[in-house]
Amino acid sequence: MVSLKGNHIYLRALEPEDLDFVFTIENDTSLWELSDTQTPYSRFLIKQYLENAQQDIFEAKQLRLAICDYNDTTIGLIDLFDFDVKNKRAGIGILIQDEGNRNKGYGKEALEILVNYCFKTLHLHQVYANISEHNLASLKLFQNNGFQKIGLKKDWSFDGEQYANEFILQRIND
């Protein structure tokens, strides 16, 4: 079994105590562009989600993990989505909530841990990410972790005023 621990952070399953953290992220309109969210989530819905978060990835087709530092502070979330057993692939999304915790290597370490888990435990053939062409920090993060740009989706996302292109990046398990 692959460890979900790194030098500075570890990944863990979501707990009921994560309600306020998840509620804050899901209702932060400045982050909605990253997740294609268009409406706020109630505490009730997030509480239900957390109560069902114990579902197996093979059943739910997704996995959301908390990114925590070794002071047990939750600093972000990392997701596997569109888990596809037949084709052995999944998408990855990551968010470090507080800007003060960004550019400190936490995202890099979390991504390395999750990719290792995907390839060695879940036996996936490939992982991918969809990243706006304007999100330079995320593009750099994924490319520095062995992901390659494989396509550009033109006018993919609309923010209410203009369209933005989105790259698809892929990493294949060699």
From TrEMBL:
Q: Which Pfam families does its entry note?
A: Acetyltransf_3 (PF13302)
Give the coiled coil ranges. Answer: none
InterPro entries (UniProt xref): Acyl_CoA_acyltransferase, GNAT_dom
The family database entries (Gene3D superfamilies) matched by this protein are listed as: 3.40.630.30
Show where the N-acetyltransferase domain sits: 9-172
Output the PROSITE patterns linked to this UniProt entry: GNAT
- From the Swiss-Prot or TrEMBL record, give the protein name: GNAT family N-acetyltransferase
